[in-house]
Amino acid sequence: MLSTIKELFDFGQAGQAHSRVHGAHGHSHGEGGHGHTHGVVDPSIASSERGIWAIKWSFVILAITAALQLVVVFYSGSVALLADTIHNVGDAATAIPLWIAFSLVRRAATKTFNYGLGRVEDYAGLIIVLIILFSALVAGYEAIDRLLNPQPITQLAAVAIAGVVGFVGNEAVAVFRIRVGREMSSAALIADGYHARTDGLTSLAVVLGALGVWLGFPLADPIIGLLITLAIFGIVWQSGRAVVTRSLDGVEPWITDEIRHAAEHVRGIDEVVDVKARWLGHKLFTDVVIAVDRSKNVSEANAIASALRRELQGHLPSLGNATIQFDDGGATPAASSAAREHHHRPTHAAGGHHYAPAPFTVSSRLATGLLEMVDTPHGERMRLSISKHVKGLEAVVEIARDGSVERLPLLPSPTDHHALMSAVAPAEPHEFDAVLKLMAGVEIDDLPFQMKEPEGPHH
């Protein structure tokens, strides 16, 4: 019975067979570890029709939830419920720039708009952030006004029910996003699902506010409303920074690292001279300057460029176009290019394979085994090889990044029933502090570890 409930709400690993990679390739770093941002849809989700479908239905569910709550707000005057409604509207509004972008991006480029209209998504996201900011200011003003000038709240039962509705709506979105995310192996969509589950707890805070008023503490409602408003301001700051960064052609630092990393897989590239990238809507455009041996003919050089494009597509699923140029100044021979390694991480050995970080030995009451980074036909993956484990074991790798946590669920391996494996590779760089979280029923064991890339051979 318990396992059935866990499967229904996606707390366990039931249904995770669908999460095995189907046609995924390379290092899908765009899919995880970058958090949830209102007004911006993760490009790894937007690049898939299935992901777009999931976002649209999430919008419908949250929009209905917010509409039901808004009706109760007008009748009850609850500030806490008003703030929670604004929060849910902000979540629902995430899908709006995606819809706008897809209706415009499909238009062909013109002589005026040579790159199409992908930038519209950024401006739509900025408008949404401003709307959420204005709504948060209104909610904050109302909460402070109620603290200074308390007013009676009516329909307490309706307010509590509306809070429960908010929780149920967010939980429905969480289950939906997690299930679809596992089907399409999208860590970003799974992360969005867990974010929605956290938002549901915010809605339950409204129920606590109503209970506090019913018990004779009328300030409980505006206090809860003010706390939720502060959380919304945090969302506005995070989202505004992300939207403005993209509109100014800024990209996440890991993207250029990943481009250089992709080049390390291609034979014949002696040096990556320059890398530039920018977002146009949910598509990534990059310019790469590489140096190759000057003795190669045009056909050989073009073959290297084609190989790099294929590698970039595998590493960056959201890639729209890669412009590859050859350095006019030529390059030093490959044997001596290691002396200029300050541009990228440790080089690859012969055959194009990199030196994986040292494995982590797992010793816990829940499981014993080895956690390591491995090469697969689909790219690098985190794999937990298990020698002994308790029944119902689940595992997640949580990597500490700047200001966020990258979560990599370890799922049953399709080729080895003694192993759990991530659906995607961890984001670059592959040197990080992390925690292996082992779970079985109510038991949880956190195992901290470090991953460090060793130095390659020196010439």
Provide a descriptive summary of the structure in words:
With 459 residues, the chain is of the alpha+beta class. The protein folds into three domains: 34-247, Alpha-lytic protease prodomain-like; 253-343, Alpha-Beta Plaits (2-Layer Sandwich); 360-451, Immunoglobulin-like. Helix content is 45%, strand content 20%. The chain has eleven helices and eleven strands. The protein has helices at residues 2-8, 43-46, 49-76, 79-92, 95-105, 120-148, 156-183, 187-214, 220-247, 253-263, 298-315; strands at 269-280, 283-292, 319-326, 360-363, 367-376, 379-389, 394-401, 404-412, 419-422, 432-440, 443-451. The strands form two sheets. The chain has an eight-stranded antiparallel β-sheet with strand order 4-5-6-9-8-7-10-11, with no helix packed on it. A hairpin with a 2-residue loop joins strand 7 and strand 8 (404-412). Helix 4 (79-92) runs antiparallel to helix 8 (187-214). 43% of the residues are buried. Belongs to the cation diffusion facilitator (CDF) transporter (TC 2.A.4) family.
Strand content: 15-25%
Structural class: alpha+beta
Whole-number total of structural domains: 3
Based on the coordinates given, report the CATH architecture of the largest domain: Up-down Bundle
Number of strands: 11
Radius of gyration based on Cα positions:
25 Å
* CATH class category name of the largest domain: Mainly Alpha
Residues in helices, as a percent range: 40-55%
Largest sheet composition: 8 strands, antiparallel
For this structure, the quaternary state is: single chain
| Residue windows where pLDDT falls under 50 for at least 5 positions | 1-36, 330-355
The backbone outline, from C-alpha atoms, is globular
Helix-strand pattern: HHHHHHHHHHEEHEEEEEEEEE
Number of helices: 11
| Residue-averaged pLDDT | 76
Query: What is the CATH third-level topology name of the largest domain?
Result: Alpha-lytic protease prodomain-like
